[in-house]
Amino acid sequence: MYKNLVHFKKKYYFCDHQTIIYSPLTTQMKQKLILLTLLLTCIGVQAIEVGEYMEIDETPCVVIYVDETGEHGLVMSRATVSYEFATKEAKRLCKEGGLNKADIYDYVRMNAVDRTKYNKMKKYKPAYRQPLFDRLMPLLGERGEENQKAIVQFCNDNGLILQHEFPDIAWADGLGEGWFIPGDYELELYAQLYAGGMREEHAMPKAEYYNRYRQLTDGERAGAIMRAPALRGAHSSTCKYPQCGFRLMTRVERDVKDWMQIFDQLAAGEEEPATVAMKRI
Questions:
Q1: pTM (2 decimals)?
Q2: Could you tell me the strand order of the sheet in which 278-280 lies?
Q3: CA–CA dist 188, 137 (Å, integer)
């Protein structure tokens, strides 16, 4: 506001409401105005911390990355459950009075990816997937935020229904503006936080791996969100090979140690890992 005043008038005025006379601001008043503006700006800025629980666009999430300013970063949503489980849970809550009947659809939509049409039309099969990704793959990269926009635009340009072709992308899009399915870049940020990195050199004993979330978060809500991709895997929006489609992050078990890796879906089926969305804040 102060900056706009400088640009608009070249002078600084204030209004005396008793006399309705406009008078030039003194140097002392200018200094006080600047200090007040800076104070209000500082009050409005809140530092964020890795592991902090938040609810953004009514979506439970946890901070997994903070930039050098300490004011901005990346949050990860709660992982999805199966569509069937979410539907049963919504009906149960409705019967017990914890959910209105009119809100069942929104409850299921926020907590599960609807792959009904996708599975019924068998669009997960390589015979369908490869021609589609032959055209899409050149538009995709390592960063999920850019991939999300590219996929939505791709469907719009080619007359495709996002929900039918890319149900996970559609789910993230429905959470609100700015949400996206992570790419390899964001999943590696998560792996770096959770296990120190990917691949076998970052293997952990099982007990440490399963309880790592307790070191990263305060409280069960944040902890449950933080650990889900490490235990159940997560979708990536990055594609390396058209016949494989989107990549997956998973954990690998070997004796008593676990580690994370991202791999290509050489043999895809209807069973899918959990889906998480991310958003920059």
A1: 0.81
A2: 53-56, 59-66, 73-77, 278-280
A3: 20
